[in-house]
Every structure is written in C-alpha cells, then in structure tokens.
Amino acid sequence: MKHILLGVSGGIAAYKAAELVRLFKKQGAEVRVVMTQSALEFVSPLTFQALSGNPVHTELLDTDAENAMGHISLARWADVLIIAPATANTLAKLSCGLADDLLSTLYLAATCPVYVAPAMNQAMWNKIVTQENVNRLVNQGVHIIGPEQGDQACGETGFGRMTEPVSICTQLVAALSDHASLSEPYLHGHKVLISAGPTREPLDPVRYLSNRSSGKMGYALAAAAIKAGAEVTLVSGPVALTAPANVNLINVTTAEQMYQAVMFRASENTIYIGAAAVADYSPVVSDKKIKKEGDQVTLILQKTKDILAEVAALEQHRPFTVGFAAETHDLEVYARDKLTRKKLDMIAANWVGQEQGGFDSEQNALQVFWDQGEKTFSMTDKAQLAEQLLGLIAERIKAS
Ligand SMILES: Cc1cc2nc3c(=O)[nH]c(=O)nc-3n(C[C@H](O)[C@H](O)[C@H](O)COP(=O)(O)O)c2cc1C
User: Fold this and answer.
1) DSSP strands (E only) in 67-156
2) Does residue 200 contact residue 161 with C-beta atoms inside 8 Å?
3) Is residue 112 among the annotated active site residues?
4) Would you say the CB of residue 160 lies under 6 angstroms from ligand 1?
C-alpha cells in the first residue's frame, strides 16, 4: 500500500484537500495529513482525521507527537509528499530551505518525490518572486502541478486556481507507478534521437534570425529517456543548458546543420522526437554586413528542409516518429493536420504566446494526438511531462 503524505497550507483551496484525501483513499493509499497553522484557520483537522482515518499532524514542537511520529519518521514513512494547496508563503519557505514549522521541516527531511499544487490569487502567482521561488523548487527536483487558469475565489480571472483534486490524484497515481518503475528501464534496448532548441539562420556575418525556444523540453526528454534505460543522442541548437550525463550530444546552429545531423543518424534509432523549433525559412546570406540604408529592408527567405516529414518518410529503418506543434490558435486542428500530412506516429501540441507554459518556461501542458487516440497532460514541470510523454510513447510502441 502506498503511503501518501498530504501537506495542507493556508489558502482558500484548503477545502479541496479534503476531496483529495478521499480520492487517495479510494486508490487504496494510506494517507497522513500535515496542516500549517494558517491551514487550521480554513478547515478543521477533524475533517482530515475522519477522512484519512489517522490523526492530523500540526505541531513541530509537540513532545507527544514527536514521540509518536516526529517529522523525521513522517518523512521516512512517506512514499510521496504532496502539498495541496501550496500557498505563496509555503512555496517561498520551501524554496529557500526555511524550516520553522512541521511542513517545511518535513520537506527538508523528505527523500521521497515531492509534488506541490500551488493555489493563489493570479497577481500573487505572476509576481516575479513567486515565479523565481517556483523555478528554484523545480531545480531542487520538486514537481509542480498547475495552477490552472480560470475564475478565482477573489473574483479575478487568471492562472492561480488549484488543479482539480481528480486531476492531481490521477497525476500522482501515474507518477507513483512511474517512480516505482524507474528501476524498471522501460526503454531499455531503445535508441532515442532527440532534436532540441532553436536554430539560428545567419543574415550576414554578424546577424541571425532565431526564435524563443529554450530547449528545456528536449533536454528534459533526453534526461527522462536516459533514466528509462535508452541510449540517447541529442541534436541541439544553441541553448544555455547543460546536457544530461551519458547523452551523446551533437551541437548544431542552423536548420540545415540540424537536418544533416538528424538524417545522418535517424535510421540508427528506434525513436525520433523532434522537439526543436527549427526555422521554417532561412534568409539568403549576405557575405558582408548589411548596411543601414533607407527606411525599409526586404529579406528574401528560402524554405528549409522538413526534418520531421523526411524522417517519417524513411522507407527503411524508420524510427517511431514524434513531432511537436507549438500553436497560438486552433491547436487541435493544426496538430492533427501536421500529424497526418507529415505521416507522424504521434504529435505533442502545446500553446505558445500564453502567460504560462511553452517556450522558455519551466512548465508546460501537452495535448498528444495519434492516429486513433489522444491524451492530455495538464500543466506541470517539463521533467515530469517528459516522463509522461515517454511513458505514452513506450505504450504506443508496444501496442503497435
Ligand atoms: C481569506 C484568506 C485567503 C487566503 N488565500 C490564500 C491563497 O489562496 N493562496 C495563498 O498563497 N495565500 C492565501 N492567503 C494568505 C495566506 O493564508 C498567508 O500567506 C499565510 O501566511 C500562509 O501560511 P502557510 O503557508 O504557512 O499556510 C489567504 C489569506 C486569507 C486571510
């Protein structure tokens, strides 16, 4: 039986945590609840005690509680720690290692996977310091679930609503089985080729055209594929990231170089994931610096080669081919069109140009489509998303 430790901090969404306990119990998990002092102002511990069947923990410096189940024993007991809702205050404390109450001390003592589901007013969520705290937590290996966009208790609209308990529960149950199967390398024997990051198309000796891709999704996929036991080659455009250990890294700059690097290796691999934002057009390069003359300048752009379509069209040793689609509108229509037009096995689509997710963000949400199905992965950090997507790819390969 899985041991789920639920931390509840002091936000309006604390009442939704009660539903979470019920859902976890329904999944057959043993649940213990830790509440912050502020959380006690929102919901009675009696609710959690009745639903979990266990006493609720609220005090760090409680001699009785320390004897029975102190913060270290609670941390050891947990297979997973989920904090839902996670307030801005709790995120800030966790991100810098403060340990002045039971929940924050537990977080420091925990060696199990940690998930947080933030919930707060949209302005609080968008505040730079909150985003920095979240990024720091992601860098510490914490998985972030949500928040979602929508109407808020304060009457405002935006990102900040806690992800619905059903969705948190589904993600956690899937993650628990992922974590359990991490020692089981489900991509063992697979060779995975991933292209990541932007390309740079030179205009003249000093200028180039590029895009805002950070490469984070492709690098997260490479790390997750290594963890899953695959042999991984990463063809990367110029990014400010360090490649995961044991990855065979090929650095490229232009779309043409990326095309050459991918096509040269594609048929040696069993899976190809095109997560790069390859330029669709590249300029005719001037060998001299373009001078500032006149009010306007016209660039002539030439269509680049379609790497994904060419890999998918390989007649021999064709890898299972997965594309990405980043869209600002009509996501499903464009993604499904790309899937069939390029004859891909799967396409992972995400919104870009939104407040949250997409390019250069630590988090993302994906809608994945294949011939006879689709799956939605809600907003979470890219490491978690990469594991979910690779799990789905492995499942589809098995089914085909
Ligand atoms: C009515 C009310 C609702 C609140 N809702 C939230 C919330 O949804 N999210 C949040 O981050 N803080 C919220 N706060 C502020 C927190 O309760 C406050 O920052 C507190 O110090 C959090 O403590 P904790 O993180 O230890 O639980 C709210 C405060 C009040 C009075």
Assistant:
1) 80-86, 114-118, 143-144, 148-151
2) no
3) no
4) no
- What radius of gyration do the chain's Cα atoms show? 23
Please report which confidence band the pLDDT of residue 183 belongs to, taking 50, 70 and 90 as the band edges.
very low
- pLDDT number for residue 354: 56
What pLDDT, on a 0 to 100 scale, did the predictor assign at position 399?
84
Domains in the chain, please, with CATH?
A: 3-180 (3.40.50.1950), 191-399 (3.40.50.10300)
> Does the Cβ of 142 fall within 6 Å of ligand 1?
no
Cα(369)–Cα(367) distance, integer angstroms:
7
Residue nearest atom 28 in ligand 1 by C-alpha distance: 11
Q: Which two tokens stand for residue 76?
A: 């050891």
**393 CA distance to ligand 1 centroid (A)?**
40
Give the pLDDT confidence score for residue 311 in this predicted structure: 98
Out of 8, 12, 95, 127, give the residue to mutate to test ligand 1, the one with the largest number of ligand atoms within 8 Å of its CB.
12
Residue listed under structure tokens 């979602």: 148
Question: In this structure, are residues 283 and 254 in contact, taking their beta carbons and an 8 Å threshold?
Answer: no
Q: How far does residue 365's CA lie from ligand 1's centre (Å)?
A: 26
CA 205 to chain centre: 37
